[in-house]
Amino acid sequence: MDKNNLSNTTSNELSLQEEKFHAAKKSTLISVIVNLLLSIWQIIIGVISHSQGLIADGIHTLSDLIADFVVLIANKKSHKKPDEDHPYGHFRYENGASLILGIILLIVGVGMVWSAIQKMLNPELIQEVHFIALVAALIALAAKEGLFRYMLRVANRVNSSMLVANAWHARSDAASSLVVAIGIIGSLCGFKIFDPIAALIVGTFVFRMGYKFTNQSMQDLMDKGADEETLQEIRNVLENIEDIKGFHDLKTRKSGDFYLVDVHLEVDGDMSIMMGHDIAVNVRDKLMENPQILNVMTHLDPYDEECTH
Fold this sequence. Notes:
Blueprint: H1 11-49, H2 52-78, H3 92-121, H4 131-158, H5 161-189, H6 194-221, H7 228-239, E1 246-255, E2 258-267, H8 273-287, E3 293-302
Parallel strand pairs: 2-3
Antiparallel strand pairs: 1-2
């Protein structure tokens, strides 16, 4: 069995982890600045234009700051090196952060749906606003949509589920601004019911995204295995290693956005311990050429020609 410590990670792993850390820090700090400026802008214009919707959207924007700080803390914690209490590292801080962000999306979605229903039942609650509120709402919408696209591009580049969750949280805020813009347009045109209908649709969408991220992070925290495509990639590598006769009991689990792999290798039972060790190390090195694989644990079994796997 290969017992190499996780701290002896390859240069590729370190490079990927460093890239994810710095990308998450930069994109999240940009999000903090944008959300802070937008929330102040929306609340001030909302008060001037007598738009309760714009004020509420400004307050909603502040909720993104909470999400951003959660990501910053999780990103810093997950970047810590393995220690005695956490020999596999601290990458699951990312899974925990994704769970928190998913819950925030759920709460925001429920709040938007509830507010929309209340307005649909009581149209008099929807106030008419000044045209400047529409300008402010459209500017906020453009800024938030731009922030979402930037954050999602960074998240996909470094393959971070935590950053993907935070990007979609930014999209939920953009959806909130869209609701406000539609509501203001409807109010200016005399169709106040547009606001609650749009809010109901977008609120349902936000709730659905919250459920998706909450469920995914829960699965990862419960050691959900890799998807079939990743498993097949691992099998292909193992099948192309001539020193092993076969393999079985291939298992995977996630730690952050990385995978931990366990596998039993079938080898000639008459070979020396040293030869078996060298084979196990070679298998580990081959599998860990995949930058998403954090560590590989192997167990050597004597090959039995009569046994089918």
